[in-house]
Design goal:
single chain; about 200 residues; Glycoprotein, Type 4 Pilin; Dna Ligase, domain 1; 5-stranded antiparallel sheet; 4-stranded antiparallel sheet; about 25% strand
Length: about 200
């Protein structure tokens, strides 16, 4: 899974345009922006992240690990959800969105981590490359690959925070009872609101 900076820029722009149209018109139809990225007809997972600029404080992040629809549709749904449906935040206003940057992460297919010991789990994770998914009963959580880099986490801290995000005790991953998955992601984001798009990671 590789995207050029031109393709990534087009996806980020489509995400921003979808949010702006959703916030400013009453009868938003996702076809308004879907047609600009219709060539992306694969079923990769996708997440859209919104951050305050220039602090890069999280304002919303939503997406799909394995969407049922093609990327061009899933991207738009993820963008709107990040702005209006992230339960951790109140919905974004149009005026507020003018001071935010948009990031798009395209995910590959998750892979189950082999082994259940603490050492085996850590050996299957590379910081900066791998995102993580945890499933434990009704509990689930996902962290994107750039999160541990931005927070300067060790592998153990990364796994601990994944458990906390899932609403579990931080050391549940050490019990061998949780299912853990890794995935890679191609990430693109604006350098500033409406600005040039950069590639965050190079796979």
């Amino acid at each position: 899974m590789q995207y050029s900076i031109e393709q990534g820029s087009k996806l980020v722009k489509a995400a921003r345009n979808s949010i702006e149209l959703y916030l400013t018109i009453n009868n938003f139809d996702r076809k308004m922006t879907e047609r600009t990225i219709i060539e992306h007809d694969n079923n990769n997972g996708v997440f859209v992240t919104i951050e305050h600029y220039p602090t890069r404080t999280l304002r919303g992040c939503m997406g799909f690990v394995e969407p049922k629809e093609r990327l061009s549709k899933a991207l738009i749904d993820a963008a709107i959800a990040a702005a209006a449906e992230d339960s951790r935040f109140v919905p974004v206003s149009h005026m507020e969105f003018e001071h935010m940057v948009v990031e798009v992460s395209i995910l590959d297919k998750p892979k189950l981590i082999a082994g259940s010991t603490e050492t085996a789990i850590k050996n299957n994770i590379k910081i900066g490359r791998d995102g993580l998914i945890l499933k434990y009963g009704y509990h689930e959580a996902i962290l994107l690959p750039n999160v541990p880099l931005e927070n300067n986490w060790t592998k153990e801290k990364y796994l601990d925070n994944l458990c906390i995000k899932a609403g579990l005790k931080e050391h549940i991953w050490k019990t061998g009872q949780a299912r853990l998955y890794t995935f890679t992601a191609h990430i693109f984001r604006e350098k500033e609101p409406r600005g040039e798009v950069e590639e965050v990671n190079k796979l």
